[in-house]
Amino acid sequence: MGILRKLAGACLAAALATAGLAAPAQAAVPDGHGFVLWNGAAVVPSGTWPPATTVTAFGGGFYEVVFPGQAAKGGVVHVTAISGRPVWCQALKWGFSGADQIAYIGCFRPGSFGIDTPFTAVFASSSPPDGVPGHYGYVHADAAATVVSEYNSAVGGGNTVAPAGGPGEYVVRFPALGTPGPNDGSLQVTAVNSDRGAHCQIPKWRSSPGGQDVLVFCFDGTGTPFDTGFTLSYQLERSLFGPAYPPKFFGYIWNMPPPPAPNPGPPATNFNSQLGPGANGLAASGLGLTLVGFRGLAQRPDTVQVSTSGQRGEFCNLQAPWSYSGTTVLVRNVACYTPAGARVDTGSFTSYNSEF
Questions:
Q1: Fewer beta carbons within 10 angstroms: which end of the chain, N or C?
Q2: pLDDT above 70 coverage of the chain, percent
Q3: Phi and psi dihedrals of 2, rounded to 5?
Q4: Could you say which residues form the signal peptide (predicted)?
Q5: What is the 3 state secondary structure string of the chain?
């Protein structure tokens, strides 16, 4: 972990030294956002916005992402590894420097060993007023369950995070983002830790007229329950960045924890902005592998994020970058693993989002 501590303590502090000296201007939701697809050697334009976004690889699985012109306070970062091997990525730290947003990413294999890998990452930050149809909210919490930054499209803020009993267990509430239930919308969760490898998952989630209640479990690189920071985003008929219409092309689907696999969640957890509820598809591709199809949504530049729905320290990534068949976006495959790196059937959340 020496390299990671050095990066967090020196490189991050220097790069973000100007953050907070002058607040960036606020705008309609979102205040700032960006996404990037890194293929291991270069930024891929079709999966990146703004177009001038850059990635610097430090080696050992550590990266700096600069989203030009997207400076905004707080916000959240989500990142998904892209690999045929058991690898995950997490956020280390982020902030703004001048007009730009800078995010630092770390990628690991079981045992918390840093590893270079392709990845896809998203940054988004919002502030009131909102006035956009649908529901949207996020939290960035530290290891002690203190809310670092947040957003709630219904009431601006007021989201809460609390320890849920054991190490690495948290309960998050998005008040006023009420829906009929039992589960409506979609979620993404990412570990935030600049000291060691960690990953988080969502074992349980309940929608009700009073809001959304989400249980988050986090683990270290050996699969041991572990207190760590994390980001959690909720979307209902809105993109993962916060707005809706535009972008006109976004969708999400929940593969509930098996058995059986795949196991689509309730109708309101499968949404397609062009074709409505229930239009996205799941298909088993093998042990721990799920093919996801988003019909009618292919619109570049675009991004895909995946999070794990389970409770035993599993983690999921993308086996390969998403592709296209006509206007259908093909995610082949969401791949899930045990903490030790063996393929395993478990649940997952997949979110597709275009800039337009």
A1: C
A2: 92
A3: -60, -40
A4: 1-27
A5: CHHHHHHHHHHHHHHCCCCCCCCCCCCCCCCEEEEEEECCCCECHHHCECCCCEEEEEECCEEEEEECCCCCCCCEEEEEEECCCCCEEEEEEEEEECCEEEEEEEEEECCCEECCCCEEEEEEECCCCCCCCCEEEEEEECCCCCEEEEEECCCECCCEEEECCCCCEEEEEEECCCCCCCCCCEEEEEEECCCCCEEEEEEEEEEECCEEEEEEEEEECCCCECCCEEEEEEEECCCCCCCCCCCCCEEEEEECCCCCCCCECCHHHEEECCCEECCCEEEEEECCEEEEEECCCCCCCEEEEEEEECCCCCEEEECCCCEEECCEEEEEEEEEECCCCCECCCEEEEEEEECC
CA–CA distances in Å: residue 336 to residues 39, 83, 136, 164, 240: 20, 11, 26, 25, 22
Nearest to 235 by CA among 256, 207, 193: 207
**Both tokens of residue 24?**
């960036």
Say whether pLDDT at 5 is over 80. Answer: no
Tens digits of residue pLDDT in 267-291: 999 999 999 999 999 999 999 999 9
pLDDT exceeds 90 at position 22: no
Assess whether pLDDT exceeds 90 at residue 36.
yes
Which neighbouring-strand residues pair with 162? 171
Burial class (CB in 10 A: 0-12, 13-18, 19+), 176: middle
Q: What is the mean pLDDT of residues 107-119?
A: 98
